[in-house]
Design a protein that fits this description.
Aspartate Aminotransferase, domain 2, seven-stranded mixed sheet, two-stranded parallel sheet, 9 helices, binds pyridoxal-5'-phosphate
């Protein structure tokens, strides 16, 4: 059998080895049930504690206030691009978007496509999204129903250095690629949503954390499956939830709590990111295009400046057991996604490889 590699994929991405091993041990027979979690009715006495526990652990991990609902949905973060306006825009009839990369651009376009009064209040498109916009309350229409941001831009490797101040306007954040990477003050947000497959679980579950008072604005004739209120009233079980993925998410929450929670997770993530950025800042073979105050702790982008060398880098790295370092198809270069599950040792190996590659492949 081939050894496990260091997988720098942006998503689906690495899962913690202890989580995979626990899941493997329980795969065919969970507890006293005599069956796999995959085979259980979602309404059975065996399954119900799993989803209840997943929610309870996440609430503990993220310190989610009681006036927020936690929903485990399907359809990926991309489905929420439509669900967000359909659930919220009736609050005032208009909404403001910040476009800081591809996913926030798609969220904005989806709301436009639905025919809503939405505007792009700020963007860094003209700078190739090499930083996130500086935002103040004055950037937004005061009567906007919400402001939508993407907190961590997976493709460009940028993140807001702090939570933007939107005053009284509810802030809606796509946190797909930074959820549970560090503590966040949930009370600063109206809605947080995230696809699971970056930092939380395998693909298949989408987390929505929504403040209760924002559940009353859904379009009357919107699809039931997209309506947060219905999902909240039914404990995410209006229909069959993604049972097994929720179970995997629960194992991931247990793993992080066992390490000491999000403060410890943040320290571990900072240590990895500092090692990689520290190396990038210490040399001039590789260029890190992101402005320093917008650097992501999860997705680190860099280029050699020569597309042929970039290509060789990704393929040589893969041969050395460092997989999926090619940048997103739309931007090229390299991207190392160093989510929670990536061990420090993986980043050490990456930096050692980068040094060796630079020495062996001088630029003409
Ligand atoms: C991956 C990603 C998405 C898309 O997620 P899906 O679950 O594939 O729909 C949206 N937003 C961000 C920030 C992402 O990283």
């Amino acid at each position: 059998m081939i050894d496990r590699v260091y997988n720098f994929s942006a998503g689906p991405s690495m899962l913690p080895l202890p989580v995979l091993e626990k899941a493997a041990a329980e795969l065919v027979n969970y507890g006293e049930s005599g069956m796999s979690v995959m085979e259980m009715s979602h309404r059975s006495a065996d399954y119900e504690p799993i989803i209840a526990e997943a929610e309870a652990l996440l609430r503990k991990l993220m310190n989610i206030p009681d006036n927020y609902k936690v929903l485990f949905l399907q359809g990926g973060a991309s489905t929420q691009f439509a669900a967000v306006p359909m659930n919220l825009i009736r609050r005032t009839g208009k909404a403001d978007y910040v476009v800081s990369g591809q996913f926030s651009g798609k969220a904005f376009k989806e709301a436009q496509k639905l025919g809503y009064d939405v505007v792009c209040s700020a963007t860094t498109k003209d700078d190739n999204f090499d930083h996130v916009p500086a935002l103040t309350k004055d950037c937004f229409r005061p009567d906007a129903a919400y402001v939508h941001i993407c907190y961590n831009n997976t493709i460009y490797g940028t993140k807001y250095p702090e939570i933007p101040d939107t005053g009284d306007i509810p802030l809606v954040a796509d946190m797909s690629s930074c959820i549970i990477s560090e503590p966040v003050d949930v009370s600063r947000f109206g809605v947080i949503y995230a696809g699971a497959q970056k930092n939380m679980a395998p693909a298949g579950v989408t987390l929505v954390i929504v403040r209760e008072d924002l559940l009353d604005y859904a379009e009357p004739n919107m699809p039931t499956m997209l309506e947060w209120k219905t999902m909240a009233e039914n404990g995410s079980m209006y229909n069959t939830p993604p049972c097994y993925t929720i179970y995997m998410a629960k194992l991931v929450y247990e793993w992080i709590l066992g390490l000491g929670g999000l403060d410890v997770m943040k320290q571990m993530n900072e240590k990895k990111a500092n090692l990689l950025y520290g190396y990038l800042d210490s040399q001039d073979y590789y260029i890190a295009p992101v402005k320093k105050n917008s650097r992501s702790m999860m997705n680190v982008t860099f280029v050699t400046g020569n597309p042929d060398l970039d290509k060789k880098f990704a393929s040589d790295a893969a041969k050395a057991g460092l997989k999926n370092l090619k940048g997103h198809r739309s931007v090229g270069g390299m991207r190392a996604s160093i989510y929670n599950a990536m061990p420090y040792e993986g980043v050490e190996k990456l930096v050692a490889f980068m040094k060796q590659f630079a020495a062996e492949n001088p630029k003409a």
